[in-house]
């Protein structure tokens, strides 16, 4: 946003840290690293997610994201993507912290390979362990309010319900649940996964949530950089619209020009 | 590499023979990896990066070398 | 958009004239003129609509929009709002042109007082007359493709189907029809009426249309200026997303982090 | 205003008496209206603004004075 | 409906004639005539539409629908499908009447080959001519209220707005417009075209309309006869639900079991 | 369904028992018991839910549902509505079984008073205990696939995801999740809670589920008995439509009358 | 069929030769069509079915034979 | 009711005095409740309906009498 515009909205405060952008982006699935970097810069995101994986001993150089991503330019949020148990997720989180950048973790515990939907029970269990170990846990979850409330109780710095399944691009399928979660939680709520195009991000923000996290919507667009620009604007648009308080919708039309003063 | 004096370790899920009397730091160098970009888990214990230089790689060790890659 | 961003999208070209913004806004129903001006400036709109009405001989000063709106700052698009016949609309258009600013007219012929829905037959008739008289006609219509095609044949410089009834704020109720109209017409298509919040504007632009016209969504928001900022971003977001080519949506999830390289 | 010499016109939908020998320009001035902001339709004919100065207001004229107001 | 159930709803009265079923079905596009007859019988429809076409002088026998459809069992409603001008539609209507069954006509004037959307202007023109000639005109149109009101004024015995384009199976895309048309017209409103599955027919009836006309939804189902049963139930379901007056919907949940009387 | 129609669909088999109707209804919130009985009979439901509560020692007679509901006419499904812990739910289930009708239980463990959304963790825990004790557990849950799979593993005879919150009447908000749950589970899936009108029930069945359970949609309708008839038809309609295999939907129109054989 | 005495007509959009001295009824029969299922338009005029028997088919006639087919 | 010989029980969440030497069956009868419609939980134990007749109601008992009511 322009300076004048930043006056219109405060920062996104997560775990005591301020972020100028409410958009968080992933670094996966890009055609190449140049496009990735350009897209991330275009998105205006300050926080970017990375995954923890074994060094591929044959072709590590190309792989290591830090050969391309400057940790001074972006705040790294490591995830536990691919983990199917609480123990596994905790192990990955500890490895991520040992990398030495920060103690933040995007907690993700999957319950089913076909849908990559979260295992909320295991997520809750891992969240408690990690919060106790001093991690700043941002927990990916489904749109269940009860689970969201417990993740907050477990000490997560943010709860991140899905808009729809990872990589589906279906957008916010259940705005009621997202809205209810936002109403009830005190920690910031970030909509994570399912956004496919700009209007989806705007719709998500219009539910009152604090931010949006996306990856495939950028990486799998025909033109990731242009889509990244679009998403930057979409998140601001949805946020400001929510802050501005939209007009009431009604089935009956209401003229926008005066009805008085017509000629004979 | 291999040799009579080589030692066997489990490295990133594969059995491998490495030179004897090697430290973790030495191992990373032999693999042409920059230590500051790699996290090492040795026999299920995460090593402090400062310990790489004086931690020996021993026969039968299970080592996991991990780093950050692109992810969502 | 920032300079760098303007490179991402061309101007909106209407009747041989370029506009830097794809957002067109009305000037009606604001609480006061100061808010109106601030909101219009915040929206980034270059083209603004005005209505033609009798001078109220008791309190004209406050009324005349040009006491507040600088015709050098904004391109004035007079409308024929409130007209119920082709003749009446033609009369208002001529009066508007006589004001001496330009020969552009937002043609609007209403067919029903309760819904303010357009009378497409009368609109078509008036469009022909006005186009023959050299007007640059931007025709407000419903989402009927057949009518849209005929308005194009009649010589309109733009066809402007509704998203939903004027002042309803229901957004794009029938994206199929809007999309089809855009696919088939050669003149620019502007979605006019029905937008209620930012995501609606983004959705409209994601159908591929050339611009959006709105009034109540700004004037009736709790904070019109903030909503104007939101709409500016929403139109850019939707436009760039459409140009970028969104990811395909699918019911089956697809991981955004690598499935390879997990630990034992 | 009124008087024996006043003339009757239909002005913006209301019957009104105005001074005789008045031009359209004079009428606008008497109403404290800025000519460049007002369009005048006289007996269903739109007047060219340049004609205001020499176009008389006559008994029985139907005049519509219009301008731009806020609209969507 | 069972006898007991018929007490729950009156007949569909069109042009002074009562029909026991609110479902009207077409006879086109079936795999074969046996399936067509079985499906129509299963649908419970009393009124069925037929098209007027040249006798194929080589293979007429198989073609003539009346070799399969007993005009004493079903009330025939001939249509003007395929006509692109008012004159053409009038010509087809007269030919249909000359067949000697009745003076009813399903008026359809198409405005565009790609979308088969109605030409409302030509439809209106033909409706006037045919009504003056004593036809009972059931006019297929789009979901524009203004056109619907004029078709009523023109003397149509029923106005039939589309749910979505013919053969699209998208269902009721714009319930607001359908609802508004029903609210404002006095002649029966039949939703015609666009229904794809049972819930679509129920949704249509829940807008308060008097009936539904469909063809492709049955003919193009994997099992037309079973789908015909489904549609019969769907139309009754939607109708009775509308008559019954649905519960209000609310975002906040309300328990359905008593909150009192819990144990300690 | 008529005899002929029952041939079109098999029975709903739950826990080894066949039910002729796929509609299960509650007995709460009716204006009076006469309306309740009439509505339940009109719905054609064979299985009806009841709640377990303390005898109100002052006015028990009116309260006891069995003074009005004949257990030989309907199959009683006691619920644990109002329970907030697994232990509480288990206690209520045992009390219900002690009533001596059957060992079936509609398991419901609530996680939040404001939304009455299920506590899936506690539900899972109680489901295991009750299944081990030989109960036939029908588990009310949210639309999370992972939880649904575990409830199946726990031995539930049916898993019952919500369409939307209890008493909301919002219908099937997330058809994707409902569909996915049905795809993956082997035990029957019943959509429970959230249905507000007939088309909602049809939509639910069109996702392929085995049945629908509702209460408020009937009890809170202006005319519960008529709405009960509507729902009976809606469930059959949705079921048969799903079995019949609906036509594909497409944005492009396809004529239903022949394009050949037009006159010159 | 054809012959010196045949006459030419336009029948359902195609040029055809038919026997001379044929009535519309005769034409339908020759085409094996049941009159009660067919509507005949002759030179843009719809014929009353009762007229089939005594309406001649003449040189240059444009005839349209239509009937009901399956349609939506 | 009350009296020197009455005993105190907790009945459906309220303290109550009931006659001494009363069985559960007797209690239900005294409350005008049909045993076949009521389930009794005594001190957190569910009673078999057959046991109502010979199960005494004792000082300090916590009794819950439940039944089916309308619910969704």
The gist of it:
Chain A has 264 residues and is α/β, with parallel strands linked by helices. Chain A has helices spanning 3-6, 33-43, 60-63, 86-98, 120-132, 145-153, 175-184, 198-206, 216-219, 224-244, and strands at residues 12-14, 17-19, 23-25, 47-54, 75-79, 104-107, 136-141, 158-161, 190-192, 211-214.
* Derived structural class of chain A: alpha/beta
Shape descriptor of chain B reads globular
Q: Helical segment tally of chain B?
A: 1
Largest β sheet strand count, sense and barrel closure of chain B:
5 strands, mixed
Principal-axes shape call of chain A: globular
Throw out a few tags for this protein.
heterooctamer; A: 264 residues; five-stranded parallel sheet; three-stranded parallel sheet; B: 72 residues; mainly beta; five-stranded mixed sheet; 35% strand
Characterization of this structure:
The complex is a heterooctamer, with four copies of chain A (264 residues) and four copies of chain B (72 residues). With 264 residues, chain A is an alpha/beta fold. In chain A, 37% of the residues lie in helices and 16% in strands. The model of chain A has no long low-confidence stretch (mean pLDDT 94). Chain B is mainly β. Helix content of chain B is 10%, strand content 35%. Chain B has a five-stranded mixed β-sheet, with no helix packed on it. Chain B is globular. The interface between F and G is small, with 7 and 8 residues.
Task: Give the arrangement of secondary structure elements.
The complex is a heterooctamer, with four copies of chain A (264 residues) and four copies of chain B (72 residues).
Chain A (H helix, E strand, L loop, with lengths): L2 H4 L5 E3 L2 E3 L3 E3 L7 H11 L3 E8 L5 H4 L11 E5 L6 H13 L5 E4 L12 H13 L3 E6 L3 H9 L4 E4 L13 H10 L5 E3 L5 H9 L4 E4 L1 H4 L4 H21 L20
Parallel strand pairs in A: 3-10, 4-5, 5-6, 6-7, 7-8, 9-10
Antiparallel strand pairs in A: 1-2
Chain B lengths: L6 E5 L2 E5 L5 H7 L8 E4 L2 E2 L15 E9 L2
Parallel strand pairs in B: 1-5
Antiparallel strand pairs in B: 1-2, 3-4, 3-5
């Amino acid at each position: 946003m322009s300076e004048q515009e930043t006056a219109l909205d405060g920062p996104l405060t997560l775990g005591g840290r301020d972020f100028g952008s409410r958009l968080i982006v992933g670094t996966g699935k890009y055609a190449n690293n140049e496009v990735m970097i350009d897209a991330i810069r275009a998105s205006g995101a300050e926080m970017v997610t990375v995954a923890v994986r074994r060094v591929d001993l044959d072709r590590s150089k190309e792989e290591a994201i830090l050969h391309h991503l400057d940790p001074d330019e972006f705040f790294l949020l490591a995830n536990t993507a691919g983990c199917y148990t609480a123990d596994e997720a905790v192990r990955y989180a500890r490895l991520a912290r040992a990398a030495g950048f920060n103690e933040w973790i995007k907690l993700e515990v999957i319950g089913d390979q076909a849908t990559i939907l979260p295992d909320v029970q295991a997520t809750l269990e891992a969240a408690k362990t990690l919060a106790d170990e001093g991690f700043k846990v941002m927990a990916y979850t489904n749109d269940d309010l009860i689970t969201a409330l417990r993740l907050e109780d477990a000490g997560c710095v943010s709860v991140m319900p899905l808009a729809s399944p990872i990589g589906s691009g279906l957008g916010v399928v259940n705005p009621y649940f997202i809205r209810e979660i936002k109403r009830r939680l005190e920690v910031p709520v970030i909509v994570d996964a399912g956004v496919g195009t700009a209007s989806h991000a705007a719709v998500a923000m219009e539910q009152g949530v604090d931010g949006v996290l996306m990856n495939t919507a950028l990486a799998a667009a025909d033109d990731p950089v242009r889509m990244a620009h679009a998403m930057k604007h979409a998140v601001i648009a949805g946020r400001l619209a929510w802050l501005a308080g939209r007009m009431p919708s009604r089935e009956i039309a209401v003229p926008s020009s005066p009805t008085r003063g017509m000629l004979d | 590499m291999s040799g009579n004096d080589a030692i066997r370790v489990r490295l990133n899920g594969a059995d491998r023979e490495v030179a004897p009397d090697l430290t973790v730091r030495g191992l990373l160098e032999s693999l042409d990896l920059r230590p500051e970009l790699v996290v090492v888990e040795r026999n299920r214990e995460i090593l402090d990066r400062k310990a790489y230089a004086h931690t020996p790689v021993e026969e039968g060790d299970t080592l996991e070398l991990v780093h950050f890659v692109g992810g969502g």
